[in-house]
Write a structure and sequence with these properties.
single chain; 437 residues; alpha+beta; Immunoglobulin-like; 3 domains; five-stranded antiparallel beta sheet; four-stranded antiparallel beta sheet; flat
Length: 437
């Protein structure tokens, strides 16, 4: 583990000016993903492929990236160079088809024109599932899960590999921090894809305003990570600590956010772990400057362990946020069974929403945004029998709930109905429960 100390000492003494030697490039399929997650049939999706050159030399000749879906070529992209330590992203629009799919990506295929340090990492295969259209879907839950997943990916990215090479380990650490920043910046793209499902009736709702504000905060956190990576790469520990302090403030701000009735307070645990990272980084900085105290070896080991634990804590926070959001989401039942397919309006529909003392359901036309139906009931559940009076089709729903402490809750989503009939005349909306936030 003395290597961990050498990495940090190497940062201070050498900077990045001497990192790496001339050698061969190494093209890799870094990752592939299909966005957004939880895809449904017919939904607009984006296949994203990330190619990197992790070798010691530049790619100066043309190479192809081939993307296949279920064994059939989906797209081919050609590139003419890729410098070392750089990466490129390929985006392929796709309309989701229900079923299990296999995505395969080849870099420098099929003829391997580029001489590389390794030819064993030029292919990546992943599987993903597209679900049939769900009978009921909560947009509110989708949005919270989106931000939690990105927080989880940020934590995973913060893990890096330590090697016997000082400079390779430094490269890995800097790359990991930049990868974490890139994960956070994905929030904007992912939210844009999810918003394509939003009906006009909900487009101006506070949920989406709050989500866009959270995107801005994620991008601000990403900027702090990027500055830390830059300062770390040139050995400026004072600037690393300064930007670390700014990052902490933004994490605290994140822990105070609430989105769709879900609090981000679990992030406080990650803040506490990051405090330990900052304290150890300061202690090691002082030791490297000649201060007396514990051994550099001991502090460096603790610092690396704390940094890895910070990433783990971010992932744990993300899972806690999802668990909280799922517990806060209303449940739809067809009779006594959980509603999975379309709602048969000739049978009873029951909506159960924990901790609500009054629930109102509003159904909207997805195209016009007009309110078509509303029903309200006291208690943590709402029973509805429409006797086939709702037309077949997809509706946007807004649930408005009141809690015993006077709190107001909103959930937005989509409900599919499969019985033909006439659309009911809009009911009078009870006073004191007007729609919106």
């Amino acid at each position: 583990m003395r290597m961990g100390v050498l990495v940090l000492i190497g940062i201070v003494l050498a900077g990045v000016g001497g990192i790496g030697q001339a050698g061969l490039p190494d093209l890799v399929v870094k990752s592939a993903r299909v966005s957004p997650s939880d895809l449904e049939e017919g939904q607009a999706a984006l296949i994203r492929v990330f190619i990197a050159n992790i070798g010691q030399g530049d790619v100066t000749n043309a190479f192809d990236v081939i993307v296949e879906l279920n064994g059939q070529e989906l797209a081919t992209r050609s590139f003419f160079e890729l410098k070392k330590e750089k990466s490129i992203e390929i985006q392929i629009p796709w309309k989701a088809v229900a079923g299990t799919h296999t995505l395969t990506v080849f870099v420098d295929g099929p003829f391997s024109r580029i001489r590389e340090a390794s030819e064993q990492n030029n292919k990546l295969t992943m599987r993903f599932v597209v679900s049939p259209v769900a009978g009921v879907r909560s947009f509110s839950l989708d949005i919270v899960k989106l931000f939690a997943r990105i927080l989880d990916e940020t934590g995973i990215a913060l893990h890096f590999k330590l090697t016997d090479s000082v400079f390779t380990s430094l490269d890995n650490a800097v790359r990991a921090i930049n990868d974490a920043a890139a994960a956070l910046r994905d929030a904007s793209l992912e939210l844009g894809l999810v918003l394509q499902l939003v009906p006009p009736a909900f487009a101006s709702d506070n949920l989406y305003r709050d989500a866009k504000a959270l995107v801005a905060l994620y991008e601000s956190i990403a900027e702090s990570f990027e500055r830390i990576a830059t300062m770390l790469s040139i050995g400026n520990f004072d600037a690393v600590l300064e930007n670390g302090g700014l990052l902490r403030k933004k994490l605290v701000e994140l822990s105070q956010k609430t989105l769709a009735n879900t609090s981000f307070v679990p992030v406080q645990a990650a803040v506490a772990q990051f405090d330990r990272v900052l304290a150890l980084a300061k202690e090691l900085r002082d030791l490297l400057k000649g201060a007396q105290g514990r051994s550099q070896y001991q502090v460096a080991v603790e610092l690396f362990n704390a940094f890895m634990a910070f990433g783990d804590e971010l992932s744990a926070c993300a899972h806690a946020i999802v668990k909280q959001a799922e517990a806060n989401t209303a449940r739809f039942y067809q009779g006594e069974e959980v509603l999975t397919g379309a709602y048969n309006s000739k049978r009873s529909l029951e909506i159960r929403w924990s901790r609500a003392i009054l629930i109102r359901l509003e159904l909207y036309d997805l195209k016009s945004g007009n309110l078509l139906f509303s029903s309200e009931e006291m208690g943590p559940w709402l029973g509805l029998v429409t006797n086939g009076s709702l037309s077949t089709g997809m509706y946007g729903y807004r649930l408005v709930g009141m809690t015993k402490h006077g709190g107001r809750r909103i959930e937005l989503g989509r409900l599919q109905i499969k019985q033909v009939g006439s659309i009911p005349v809009r009911q009078n909306v009870p006073s004191g429960m007007a729609g919106g936030h």
